[in-house]
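Retro notes (design track)

What went well: tokenization of the new backbones is finally stable.
What didn't: we kept losing track of which sequence belonged to which structure.
Fix going forward: every design gets posted as structure first, then sequence, in one message. First example under the new rule, 444 residues:
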């Protein structure tokens, strides 16, 4: 990476091959990025990331036949960005590159449902074996893989409606979930070893304050009221409802992050009542809570929050919404809304004055814009720390959200059958690329 964070240069190893024996080339990489920007189903993290590449906007608009900021010369690929983007390398590492020679004639809008997926060509430890639709598919050793071969020759991936049942019955050796009721059973089952991953999926309340359209909610305009509501809620107790798969938070910078300043709105019901009195709170007013997650644990969270708020003397009513974000950002008939998102960059980007949805409840406040831009562009560790702490300070000053907890995942291994290295303590977030020394796993 260049010092200014604008240029990334990669060199492919020699003699890399796809699982069908065809060479992996720099042209494959270029084609993947171009295709991702025009495909029908691609995660927004990737399209946002690739949008920083010079010439991407012109390519998407049809004003150019290629992306000017990608250059391929032999095994060398160079990306030139229009502005520094701190998450470029992370997103590129998690992107799944596909073989151009198998898919170049497929319409990008149809790629997600084409015949390729019946027997996909791969580039990792394994190649595709066989599939019984609706039952299972197999992965077998890829003879063209140039890294250290895994000790496990074959992996059977079962389709199941209930991962817990498959795990407890012995039908599978690995599964992941974060349902509180499932975790309770798995944690009590002999032979299952759980590995927690603190994936930063935030659950939090947002305040309906004021929209850019001028539609205001006077009940939530006083920051002392918002701070009081935050102080009235016991976040540690809420996190415990997830049986080990959640971590209490008092700001968007997680408690485990070394850049966390240690400041936050914890649990202090007496101070909450004092702040409400100072703000002239109308104790006859009924606070309206809107939520749209209808699972058992989310309902328990809402019930607990109602209890905490009523305990300090507030009147509270709850409404379940089947319209979700429409009711949060368009209908807006509520005071605080229960929501979730992740990871950290997305959580903080919601404060931006240009957010399509959040400007409807924060009134297009520009206070966060400079710090958000600094965080997204920071590549130097000191700059990253400064940007994160600036965001935390603003968050605690404005109190536009009440972070409650982050939900992670429990990854379970049937360690009666499968041995993994003892130094592995975190199997990572499912769906993300994580080095878990898999080549050393073996069947006992």
């Amino acid at each position: 990476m260049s010092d200014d964070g604008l240029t990334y240069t990669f060199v492919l190893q020699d003699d890399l091959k796809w699982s069908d024996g065809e060479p992996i080339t720099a042209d494959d990489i270029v084609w993947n990025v171009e295709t991702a920007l025009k495909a029908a189903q691609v995660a927004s993290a990737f399209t946002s990331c690739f949008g920083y590449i010079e010439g991407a906007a012109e390519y998407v608009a049809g004003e150019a036949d290629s992306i000017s900021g990608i250059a391929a010369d032999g095994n060398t690929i160079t990306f030139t960005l229009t502005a520094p983007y701190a998450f470029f390398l992370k997103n590129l590492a998690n992107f799944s590159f596909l073989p151009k020679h198998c898919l170049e004639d497929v319409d990008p809008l149809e790629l997600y449902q084409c015949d390729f997926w019946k027997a996909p060509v791969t580039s990792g430890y394994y190649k595709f074996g066989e599939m019984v639709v609706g039952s299972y598919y197999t992965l077998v050793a890829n003879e063209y893989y140039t890294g250290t071969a895994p000790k496990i020759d074959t992996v059977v991936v079962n389709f199941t409606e209930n991962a817990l049942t498959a795990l407890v019955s012995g039908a599978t050796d690995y599964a992941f979930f974060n349902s509180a009721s499932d975790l309770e059973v798995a944690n009590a089952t002999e032979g299952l070893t759980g590995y927690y991953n603190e994936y930063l999926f935030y659950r939090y309340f947002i305040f309906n304050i004021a929209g850019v359209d001028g539609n205001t909610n006077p009940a939530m305009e006083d920051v002392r009221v918002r701070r009081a509501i935050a102080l009235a809620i016991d976040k540690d107790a809420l996190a415990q409802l997830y049986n080990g798969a959640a971590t209490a938070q008092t700001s968007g910078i997680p408690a485990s992050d070394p850049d966390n300043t240690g400041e936050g709105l914890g649990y202090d019901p007496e101070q909450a009542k004092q702040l409400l009195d100072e703000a002239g709170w109308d104790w006859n007013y009924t606070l309206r809570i809107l939520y749209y997650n209808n699972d058992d644990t989310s309902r328990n969270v809402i019930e607990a929050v109602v209890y905490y708020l009523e305990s300090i003397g507030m009147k509270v009513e709850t409404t379940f919404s089947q319209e979700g974000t429409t009711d949060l950002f368009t209908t807006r008939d509520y005071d605080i809304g229960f929501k979730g998102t992740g990871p950290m960059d997305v959580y903080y980007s919601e404060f931006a004055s240009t957010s399509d949805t959040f400007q409807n409840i924060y009134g297009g406040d520009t206070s966060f814009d400079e710090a958000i831009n600094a965080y997204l562009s920071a590549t130097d560790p000191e700059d990253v720390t400064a940007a994160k702490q600036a965001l935390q300070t603003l968050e605690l000053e404005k109190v536009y959200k009440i972070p409650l907890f982050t939900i992670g995942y429990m990854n379970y291994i049937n360690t009666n059958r499968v041995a993994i290295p003892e130094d592995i303590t975190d199997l990572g977030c499912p769906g993300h690329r994580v080095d878990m020394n898999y080549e050393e796993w073996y069947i006992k």
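Added context from the reviewer: The chain has a mean pLDDT of 94.
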